[in-house]
Amino acid sequence: MADILIFGDNVEFITDLKDQIQRFISDVQFVSDSPDLIVVDENKAKYAELRQKYPNVPILMLGTDLDLKDDALNISIKKPLRLMAFLDVVRAANHKLDHSTDGYLRFNGYELRPSHKEIADLQTLKTVKLTEREVAILKYLFKNRGAYVSKNDLQTNVWQYNEEVATHTIETHIYRLRQKVETNARRLILTDNGGYKLITDGDEDD
C-alpha cells in the first residue's frame, strides 16, 4: 500500500483529486506524515519545505508555472490536469522509486533494496535475501525512524489489519530478521517496552 500526502489550498480540488486517486488506484491511503509519495498543488514554498523534510520521497508538483528540474524525485505536472495521465504519473513515481537506486534505503551501515528483496551490509559487502514481509517491516520502521513502533502499528500497517496476526507472529518475524542480518558488532533493530525502532546513523546501539 502506498501512503500519499497531498497538500493544496484549494480544498475542493484536493478532495476531488483524492476521490479520483482512490477510485482508480485502490491500494493507497492518504497520510499527513511519513509518506511514500507527495503531491503539492500550486505552492512552491510548501514544496521546498516538504523537500527538506522528506529528501528521499518523490514529489509531484502541480501548477501552471513550473520551473522544477524533473528527475526520479521531482516531477512537474502542468495544469489543467488530464486525469488518466496524472494517475499514470502517480503509479510510475512509486514504481520508479522502488525499482531504482533512489529507492534504496540506507541506515546504520546497511542498504535495503526493496525491489530485489535483499539487504546489504555495506561494511562487509555481504547481501542477505529477505521475504516480502521482512522488507515491508523494514520499510515501515524506516518511515518511522527515530521513534519506536508498537506491535499494533505493525499489525495495522504491515499486516493490513489482519486480526489473525498474533503478537508472537510479529515477534517471530522480528527475531528471524535479526538472525539474518545482525552481527555481534552491529545491530539492526532496538526493542523497548514492546516496541521496535530501526537503528539509524547516530542512534545508540544498545
What does this structure look like?
This protein has two domains: 2-101, Rossmann fold (3-Layer(aba) Sandwich); 105-198, Arc Repressor Mutant, subunit A. Helices cover 36% and strands 22% of the residues. It has six helices and eleven strands. Helix 2 (44-53) links the parallel strand 3 (37-41) and strand 4. The chain starts with a strand and ends in an 8-residue tail after the last strand. The mean pLDDT is 84.
List the defining traits of the structure above.
Arc Repressor Mutant, subunit A; four-stranded antiparallel β-sheet; 206 residues; Rossmann fold; alpha/beta; 6 helices; 11 strands; five-stranded parallel β-sheet
Compact overview of the structure:
With 206 residues, the chain is α/β, with parallel strands linked by helices. 36% of the residues lie in helices and 22% in strands. It contains 6 helices and 11 strands.
